Amino acid sequence: MSSSNKPVIVTKSSDLKASGGQTEGMIRQNAITGLTDNICASRMIAHPHTASAVHHHGDQDTIVFAFSGHGTVVSDGGKKKQVLAPGDFALIPAWAEHQEVNEGDVEVVWCIVRSPGPNPHVTNLEGWS
Q1: Sheet with 61-68, edge to edge strand ranges
Q2: Is the pLDDT of residue 2 over 60?
Q3: How far, in Å, CA of 63 to CA of 4, rounded?
Q4: CB within 8 A of 60, min separation 6: which ones?
Q5: What is the largest CA-CA distance in the chain?
Q6: Which stretches make up the Cupin type-2 domain (predicted)?
Q7: How are the residues of the chain apportioned to helix, strand and coil, as percentages rounded to the nearest 5?
Q8: Structure-model confidence comparison of residues 70 and 2, the more confident one
Q9: Least confident span in 1-10, 64-73, 90-99
């Protein structure tokens, strides 16, 4: 067995800052980016009664883990709504148009992991295609 010369890297939640494309009422914060060619992670905080723009993540598959609050992933041209409660996971396939919505009265916090790529891709759209 050989050991890797690469160090373990920790990003403290207190060090996260708004980064990348933002939507009013939603804060995207890069957590682990630019450190490997294969994967990246960020935190999304959605204030009460907010919605992201309809968007996709290009060739990146996305895994969502719901930390707190009850947020909704809207897809299928706006016809399908799936609520994520704390502890739930979702897979958003590459190129899938979707929207995050917080219809509740408390913040929604999600961990977002994308692959491939060292940085998250977000392409906002003018609506459903």
Answers
A1: 26-32, 40-46, 108-115, 61-68, 89-92
A2: no
A3: 26
A4: 94, 114, 115, 116, 117, 120, 121
A5: 52
A6: 44-111
A7: 5, 45, 50
A8: 70
A9: 1-10
Average pLDDT, stretch 64-71? 98
Cis amide prior to 48 (ω within 30 degrees): no
- Is the pLDDT score of 3 beyond 70? no
Q: Looking at residue 82, what is its pLDDT?
A: 98
pTM of the model: 0.91
- C-alpha–C-alpha distance, residues 30 and 111, integer Å: 10
* Eight-state DSSP code of residue 79: T
Specify whether the CB–CB gap between 62 and 114 falls below 8 A. Answer: yes
> Rounded to whole angstroms, how far apart are CA atoms 122 and 22?
9
For residues 61 and 53, give the distance between their C-alpha atoms in angstroms, rounded to a whole number: 18
Q: Look at residue 80 and tell me whether its pLDDT is greater than 70.
A: yes
Vertex 29 angle, CA 9 and 79, to 5° = 125
What are residue 87's DSSP bridge partners? none
User: Which is nearest to 107 in space by CA: 54, 61, 48?
Assistant: 48
